[in-house]
Amino acid sequence: MVDYDPACDLFYAPVDLNAPHVLAQNGLPPSEGRPQFHQQMVFAVAMRTIRIFERALGRTVLWARDASPEESDRRNENGVPRDFVKRLRIYPHALREANAYYSPEKTALLFGYFKTGVRPDAEDSSWVFTCLSQDIIAHETAHAILHGMHRRSIEATNIDALAFHEAFADIVALFQRFTMTDVVEHQIAATRGELRTEQSLLTGLARQFGQALGRSGALRYALDLLKPLPGGKKHPPLSEALEPHERGAYLVAAVFDAFVMIYERRTADLLRLVLGQSRPDGRELPIDLVRRLASEAGKAADHVLRMCVRALDYLPPVDVHFGEYLRAIITADADLVPDDRLGYRVAIAEAFRKRGISVPGCISMAPDSLMWETPDKDCDGLEYDKLFASLLPTIRQGVNFDAPNSGSEVDGKPPNYREESIRVIVQNQHAIWTWLVEPSEDDEKWEGLLGVRLTRGDLKTIPISPKGKPAVEVHSARIARRAGPSGEELVQLIVQIVQRRHGYMNSKKQRAADEKGTRIKPDFTFRGGCTLHIDLRDGRLRRVIRKRIDDDGRLERQRRFRSDDDGGLATAQRTDPRRREPFAFMHGS
Fold first, then answer.
1. Does residue 589 lie in a domain region?
2. CA-only gyration radius of the chain, Å
3. Among 299, 318, 388, 558, which one is most buried in terms of CB atoms within 10 A?
4. How many domains does the chain have?
5. For 124-176, how does the pLDDT look when each residue is reduced to its tens digit (9 = 90+)?
6. Closest to 112 in 3D by CA, of 127, 96, 101, 89
7. Is pTM beyond 0.85 here?
8. Where are the annotated segments for Disordered (predicted)?
């Protein structure tokens, strides 16, 4: 926590949350005018968000730093990224403006504050602090966690890339609302059990911030795309939504609509038992029913949020699209909960279909058709089970970060499990990278399975490593421990492998460079790679989720995206001095 206010050139005294007088009153009392309460508020919400992710992922979350494309591409001699950061920094009063954003360059959350009204000096104007909004804090923290898991997710490689970042952060903020039992019960009683209404405080994000900007309500609504437009007009299709927040609203609406369907399915019998077949207008719900409905809403929100978070491990490491996120949600849930008794996966697939989010390559939107394929079809005679089983002795299986008293103290202090996790991950990354760069007679077969080049071949635009093979990066090698409802534990090694290739806007120049090589500076960097899921019980390779480096069709789509410049995102990242801060650019506008 760094509470420096550059507009006033002041450092505010830090709050000591372990001070006896603070502990005695269970934290500082709410106070908009006290910087120390602002610090406590933003710290508490950020930590709660982090714990939600760690519980769903089965491991610690880590932070990443991408100061610039050039610096983030530098690797140490082992081919392992050097941009892990031990701590996320938080600046509660970093900006005097109506903005808040996650900074990849600083690995920090920066919160702004501003005065309301057209005339800030008017008597009726008041200060609005974004660090006091639970929605905004959770949203920005989710950006930081997602970047830590997928360090290439902040690159605008397609129209969905940054929209996915915004939508996912909104999803986390929305569903965190349902952990506040008193608020949920109040809103359930006020709306008589209905969640498909704008009157509910549970469906809008950053209400005070939106009103301060002159809007009639919240900054964004999960139900914007579910309510009818005036005059019987229809909402524009997803293909016409270009701005990241506007496009991301389709993904938020799909997930929230699925949640509401699940909630209604879980509570239909309760409502019939208490109220019969109808709910007459004006009739208040019994308090016991309100509590049960709130409990069911909280459970459904927790389940759906966990599904959304676990899906991050089932995404390709680069160039993500909305449809791939749907496949990730379905596959991650099916791996952990084979029996979808309550139809969660059906509800999610149906909600995505209604929003126009398609999945190219799938014959239908049925959950079974949407799952990522197993690698058996692509192994091409490889004994991949034996290979990964042979790697197990070199893989460290991590630390138990949920047992705070299980480790030995260092200098009188408890062990830092996040630092230990980084050491374990780096060792595992090195083990995987060593296997990739060692010459093998099966290299060409592995190329087909992994989607990266391990031989020079006909792509001279892939940089060469000091080992003489095409350079390859191991972005992540993390252990995930998850327990399903049956009690069976799923222990996996999640590996992200990424490769880069020089890209040129002119297709003829691209072909010439691929075939013969060139010293001409590339116009952009094209990336491919895969996410591997290795079962640590037997070393079996369970999933390979690829974006091939030699996919010229995907290369052409990226070339077209950059030349068409939908939404100005690609140009901003190439030419804007703040290209290192995509969220400052988007949130500020």
1. no
2. 25
3. 318
4. 2
5. 568 889 999 998 999 999 999 999 999 899 998 999 999 999 999 999 998 99
6. 96
7. yes
8. 560-589
